[in-house]
Amino acid sequence: MAYNFRKEQKELYVPGKNPSLINVPAMKYLTVRGHGDPNQENSEYKKAIEKLYAVAYTIKMSKKGTYQIPDYFDFVVPPLEGLWWQDGITGIDYAHKEMFNFIAMIRLPDFVTQDVFDWAIQEASEKKQLDLHNVEFLSMQEGLCVQALHIGSYDDEPATIDKIHKFIEEHGLQVDINDDRHHHEIYLSDPRRTKVENLKTVLRIPVKNN
After folding, report:
1. Which segments constitute the GyrI-like small molecule binding domain (predicted)?
2. Residue ranges per structural domain of the chain
3. 167 in helix, strand or coil?
4. Which CATH class is domain 5-209?
């Protein structure tokens, strides 16, 4: 059976609708940075997603090729994630999506090293005929955060964000969004196959103690 991060590490991927505190450990990611409204046709964001999945599946399917990755185990490619921010704004202004900066991400198993990443970039570039120069290999320890499950349209996220901020205030914490820590979303649903009202998204806000 392929290892499924979402099922095996439910504390990271299956929070309740009510906000909760979590200390997120160090993890490895494929990432692409970009800017602009993610919903626009041919947006940087949509191109980033294509690149991330091309590399992630190249690593997953290496088991069928000649390149043998040390300590490899089969895995279900984890859900797409994103860090979002807007210059000069603390939080998110959903009315101005054209101002978004993002880091689109897919988590990697721990067996992926820089050498494995470099191989996967070259392999995917050749097989998929993609320019992958802006795909990065990132290790990140997110640390203390408050998270909650949002169900419904992405445009309705402010209601869940309000619940998270209320939890933060009630527990004597502070929002800790800065140049290194950002509003974080994990997309548990495929919007191409899921009704808008049923979309499931983990919303995660970095915090610190007062």
Report:
1. 18-208
2. 5-209
3. helix
4. alpha beta
